[in-house]
From TrEMBL:
Described purpose of this protein according to its UniProt entry: Is required not only for elongation of protein synthesis but also for the initiation of all mRNA translation through initiator tRNA(fMet) aminoacylation.
Motif ('HIGH' region): 19-29
Family recorded in the similarity comment: Belongs to the class-I aminoacyl-tRNA synthetase family. MetG type 1 subfamily.
Binding-site residues for Zn(2+), renumbered to this chain: 150, 153, 162, 166
Domain TRNA-binding per the UniProt entry, residue ranges: 624-722
Chain positions covered by the region annotation Disordered: 576-619
Co-factor binding details: Binds 1 zinc ion per subunit.
Name by which UniProt lists this protein: Methionine--tRNA ligase
Keyword match Ligase: yes
UniProt source species: Halorubrum ruber
Named cofactor requirement(s): Zn(2+)
Catalytic activity: tRNA(Met) + L-methionine + ATP = L-methionyl-tRNA(Met) + AMP + diphosphate
Protein EC: 6.1.1.10
GO cellular component: aminoacyl-tRNA synthetase multienzyme complex; cytosol
Length: 722
């Protein structure tokens, strides 16, 4: 691992958290996989040698429980879901170099060898613990076979995780008031001997590791609290049949009288031991398929294999934030203890909510992956929406209205509009494409700037900024063609007109290359329209700097408008489906299956709070709040926007710079009185184009009357709100 800017000369591995082979995928799941695919493709555009790998997580108690309910073996149950995932991901252009699963021979061998290495190095030991036992069914209850109360926060907990409260990992025996999920009867605790990994010995290493770790800030900051509180050693075995067997064969004796010894052959490894090892196994399978010369999995994962880079390759994990602890505590400790390369970065995404509420699979309150495709939508607009709608570690609220707005404004109105108008003009006026020696200095400099923004986004681990680099370039293209008006120059200044259109085609080619990670299928179609040789998937950012060379075909519009009537229809379908599901289950409380808040308790008081919305139960972390750049501003100028009933164009002084912001204030404020007004501005709000005016920020106001937020004292423009 290095900390040099990408691209480096080391092999890189990008992984996504393994989907649990236990149910359908929805767009909340897709956010992580799309994010990983976007980042992997972006690395390749920079020229980084990259393997993008993942696999299905096959083991654990939920699989065993659900398989039993369906009357099939856990292996068949999990393999059926694995095959569905392997078919679904390509439909969304998520293109893994290898997609395996944790139950295959490769992962079994590597997992057992790594555990043997831990044992031989003295990092494993035996310990008697209290394990939940179902006296009615006469069996031990690992993980999700037991539920009860979290000992740390008092919330409902399922086996190995406080899933409704503090989200802390729970060891066997920690759940209070245990109940068997099999019979519903109270469970009891009995002593059993299990294997433990001495994670506490790695506290100093892990603290230093977090100092080095790149990626999102939540992945660095959240684990520090656990280290400061004192790391607990980790039980790595479970009393069940489904999983990878604990290596060894001799029965171990209980160290204390009254305990019950567990033969190692009666134990399987905890699912979180073999799950991350699948990253290594999947990379190995990829190397075996393409050859070590194309990609050497050992050089990427093992220390001391490469003479040139003995620390290993560049490993980037893309995960959901609910599994940060596993990837920043347990996993790096295992890697360090067995001479494997540590991760360079962990990118932990926020959740996806639906109209402000958590997804709920049991209430059917979700937009399913197959449902999105069945509605006839192309996968690339959803990829763009999930990748660019907020920072990667922030929660994203999905609604069909918001989806339609982003598609119509940015993909159709900005990117698609520039591409179609410029390429159509070029096709109609120049048979084989406009001819010029090279892009003009102005356009070449702007393309260079976009490439630099793209590279900076990769090194900042920002998939949103990757999208911004493209939309900003397209926005510039619209401004450039409008400013130069080639349709007026064709007759009077034909050479100048041809240079302008050549510049526009050069911008289109750069967009094709830089947009490939977010919209791979649409970018390939654009590449074909440009008549460029080969595939855009093989092009690096250097191709974005090269002028167009192909014969232009007749262009077609890349993106389709989402009409209001379509949004209404989609909302009606979703509402009817959720209502039917809630009616079927008697409107009983529901636990979110996606580790998200699913509380629908009505906290309003009808007598006292009829006009006040209830406070949200959805909380954001301090890290999420720090992502908001809220500043004091002063309105310098204000003018109404022609054709817009409510919108005002504001020029706002933010200290370091002056910005144009569009706000819906015309009907609620005297526009002439707005200049010199102090306001509070969300400065890192994504840009939007409204009635032809680019809005670069958001002015904050309270209530339906748009009561402008301001300061009590004389804070200067640019002062940050904390």
């Amino acid at each position: 691992m290095s900390h040099d800017d990408f691209p480096t000369d080391r092999p890189a591995v990008v992984t996504c958290g393994l989907p649990y082979a236990n149910g359908d995928l929805h767009i909340g799941h897709l956010r992580t996989y799309v994010g990983g695919d976007v980042y992997s493709r972006a690395l390749e555009r920079l020229g980084q040698r990259t393997a993008f790998v993942s696999g299905s997580d096959m083991h654990g108690t939920p699989v065993a429980v659900n398989a039993e309910q369906e009357g099939v073996s856990p292996e068949k149950f999990a393999l059926d879901w694995h095959e569905r995932y392997a078919e679904t991901f390509p439909k969304f252009n998520v293109d893994f170099d290898n997609y395996g699963h944790t139950h295959d021979e490769t992962n079994t061998e590597i997992t057992q060898q790594l555990v043997r290495d831990l044992d031989e190095a003295g990092h494993l030991y035996e310990k008697e613990i209290m394990v939940a036992y179902d006296p009615v069914d006469d069996q031990y209850l690992p993980d999700r076979y037991v539920e009860g109360t979290c000992p740390y926060c008092g919330a409902h907990a399922r086996g190995d995780e406080c899933d409704e409260g503090c989200q802390r990992h729970l060891e066997p025996g920690e759940v209070e008031d245990p109940e068997s999920t099999i019979t519903g009867n109270p469970a009891e605790y009995r002593e059993r001997t299990h294997k433990f990994f001495a994670v506490s010995e790695f506290a100093d290493y892990l603290s230093d590791f977090l100092d080095r770790l790149e990626g999102t800030s939540n992945a660095r900051n959240q684990p520090r609290e656990w280290i400061e509180q004192g790391l607990q050693d980790w039980c790595i075995t479970r009393d069940m049949d489904w999983g990878i067997d604990m290596p060894g064969g001799e029965a171990t004796e209980s160290p204390r009288e009254g305990g019950e010894a567990a033969d190692s052959q009666d134990l399987v490894l905890y699912v979180w031991v073999d799950a991350p090892i699948e990253y290594i196994s999947s990379t190995k399978q990829y190397s075996e398929r393409v050859g070590a010369d194309a990609f050497d999995w050992e050089a990427a994962w093992k220390e001391g294999v490469s003479d040139e880079h003995p620390e290993g390759g560049e490993v980037v994990h893309v995960i959901g934030r609910d599994i940060i602890q596993h990837h920043t505590i347990f996993w790096p400790a295992m890697l360090e203890a067995t001479d494997h390369a540590e991760p360079r970065a962990v990118m932990a995404s926020g959740f996806v909510t639906l109209d402000g509420k958590g997804f709920s699979t049991s209430r059917d309150r979700a937009v399913w992956a197959d449902e999105y495709l069945d509605e006839g939508f192309h996968p690339d607009p959803l990829r763009y929406y999930l990748a660019t709608n907020g920072g990667f570690q922030q929660d994203v609220d999905f609604s069909w209205e918001k989806f339609a707005e982003r598609v119509n404004t940015e993909l159709v109105g900005t990117v698609g509009n520039f591409l179609y108008r410029s390429l159509l003009f070029a096709h109609r006026n120049y048979e084989d494409g406009p001819d010029a020696d090279a892009p003009s200095d102005e356009v070449a400099a702007r393309i260079d700037e976009a490439v630099e923004e793209f590279a900076a986004a990769v090194n900042d681990y920002s998939v949103r900024a990757l999208g911004d680099a493209v939309t900003d370039l397209a926005r510039y293209g619209n401004e450039y063609i409008q400013r130069n008006e080639p349709w007026k120059l064709v007759d009077e200044e034909p050479a100048e007109a041809e240079q302008v259109i050549y510049d526009c085609v050069a911008l289109a080619k750069a967009i094709a290359v830089l947009f490939e990670p977010l919209a791979p299928e649409k970018s390939e179609r654009l590449w074909d329209q440009l008549g460029e040789p080969g595939s855009v998937h093989d092009a690096t950012v250097e191709a974005a700097r090269e002028g167009p060379a192909g014969d232009l075909g007749e262009p077609t519009e890349l993106f389709e408008q989402v009409e209001d009537e379509r949004v209404e229809d989609l909302n009606e379908k979703l509402e009817a489906r959720v209502a039917e599901s809630e009616s079927d289950d008697g409107d009983e409380g529901d636990e979110s299956d996606d580790d998200e808040n699913d509380d629908e308790t009505d906290t309003t008081d009808d007598t006292d709070m009829t006009d006040i919305e209830p406070l949200s139960d959805d909380r954001i972390s301090f890290d999420d709040f720090q992502e908001l750049d809220i500043r004091v501003g002063r309105i310098e100028e204000a003018e109404g926007i022609e054709g817009a009933d409510d919108l005002v164009k504001l020029t706002v002084d933010l200290g370091a710079e002056t910005r144009t912001i569009v706000a819906g204030l015309k009907q609620l404020h005297d526009v002439d009185d707005l200049p010199d007004t102090k306001v509070i501005v969300l400065a890192n709000m994504e840009k939007a184009e409204l009635f032809g005016v680019e809005s670069n920020g958001m002015v904050l106001a309270a209530g339906e009357e748009a009561d402008l937020l301001t300061t009590y004292e004389d804070a200067a423009p640019g002062t940050k709100v904390k």
